Recover the amino acids of this structure.
């Protein structure tokens, strides 16, 4: 599918994988709509895209606030008339024993990793249903498929998102809207965080760019093809899990 002129919303676009996706999809000449609750970081990427003459708009939008979501989606629809692609990429990774969490942190992780993606999807679906077309990519993580002995809260949020994703596919199976799940494993920390050390950050950036390329590949398949489930792991993790 040609992404030229497609209106693409990316959540969590100010850093990590969201930022890498914005830069990757800018090469497709899409109309990018970048969302993040970090206004300062958004301005950095907005300036870079502007310097490269990329059509992009940036919104400071907290996806845990449904009023902000609805307001932002209304602005996008007024400006462009449609939303072609939603990439639910915003995420918080925190792994520690369950007794180490306070309740507010638990709620925040659930709000960003699961409820925010659900509410974003709910807000954009009416416009996609009007055209009977569109693509929704949920960045879920292999933690949404299997449990681990660390990060019980993070795992729970990703299982919640996976449950929503699986049900949404069934709900929309008779429409022209494509629902796709992307499941990175063994690299989540690298995808969603940045490092204070330049040499380490350079390595993580390359990893994020490679993963962003994979999502770009999913989105650009011909309309009669759907990659609805793509798991990707680092080679050493794959070898370890295969031999276990």
């Amino acid at each position: 599918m040609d992404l030229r002129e497609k209106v693409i919303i990316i959540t969590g676009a100010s850093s990590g994988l969201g930022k890498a996706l914005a830069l990757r999809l800018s090469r497709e000449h899409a109309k990018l709509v970048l969302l993040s609750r970090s206004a300062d970081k958004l301005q950095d990427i907005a300036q870079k895209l502007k310097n490269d003459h990329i059509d992009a708009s940036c919104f400071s939008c907290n996806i845990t606030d449904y009023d902000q979501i609805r307001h932002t989606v209304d602005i996008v629809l007024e400006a462009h008339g449609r939303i072609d692609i939603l990439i639910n990429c915003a995420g918080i990774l925190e792994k520690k024993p369950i007794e180490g969490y306070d309740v507010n942190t638990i709620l925040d992780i659930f709000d960003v990793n699961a409820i925010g993606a659900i509410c974003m999807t709910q807000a954009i679906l009416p416009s996609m249903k009007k055209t009977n077309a569109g693509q929704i990519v949920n960045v879920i993580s292999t933690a949404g498929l299997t449990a681990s002995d660390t990060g019980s809260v993070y795992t729970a949020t990703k299982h919640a998102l996976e449950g929503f994703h699986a049900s949404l596919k069934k709900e929309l199976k008779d429409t022209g809207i494509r629902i796709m799940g992307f499941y990175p494993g063994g690299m989540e920390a690298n995808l969603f965080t940045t490092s204070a050390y330049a040499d380490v950050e350079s390595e993580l950036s390359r990893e994020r760019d490679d993963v962003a390329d994979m999502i770009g590949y999913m989105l650009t398949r011909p309309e009669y093809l759907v990659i609805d489930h793509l798991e990707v792991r680092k080679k050493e993790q794959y070898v370890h899990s295969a031999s276990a």
